[in-house]
Amino acid sequence: MSEDQHDNNPSAEAQTFNLMEMLRVLDPRDLEVERSVGEGLVVRSAELGQLSGVFVEPCFPVTERGMHLLLKDADGAEIGMIEDVHKLDKASRNAVEAELNEQHFIPTIIRVRDISDELHIPVWQVDTDHGERRLELKRRHDVHNMGGGRIYIRDAAGNGYLIPDISKLDPASQQLVQSNS
Fold it and tell me: Which of 2, 45, 138, 141 has the greatest number of C-beta atoms within 10 Å?
């Protein structure tokens, strides 16, 4: 399709969109964020005014904590995105990181003891940086190779676990993971 044809074709125009227009990227210089324990965050800015009961949710990738964070109200409606938490002032950054850690806790797997199937449900026995865990997955596809040796695992309850670098695991753990992912 030539450029002239594209300009005159309304259906082609309707199929394109600008992602940045759809996302409300918040100016970190304009945000002031504080925690309201048990009630989410309180966010203040010239653009938004003051909002209470705000929750933070990572967009992508889940292993890059502090990047691309959605702020949502108590009903789950999107308020806007913080591209990089490190661009916030220190007090706001600490509030967002504390809320993120409380809401999206991702233990690091440091050893895999066993991987088995129980009634066609993959079950992982692992040691994490927060103790021993038994992970029941919905399916084998809940083990995601993120590249660079990183593996992200989501259990049936929706909890995430991370192996930051499979090559850093002991050989027995590496063998179990490689034969079951």
Answer: 45
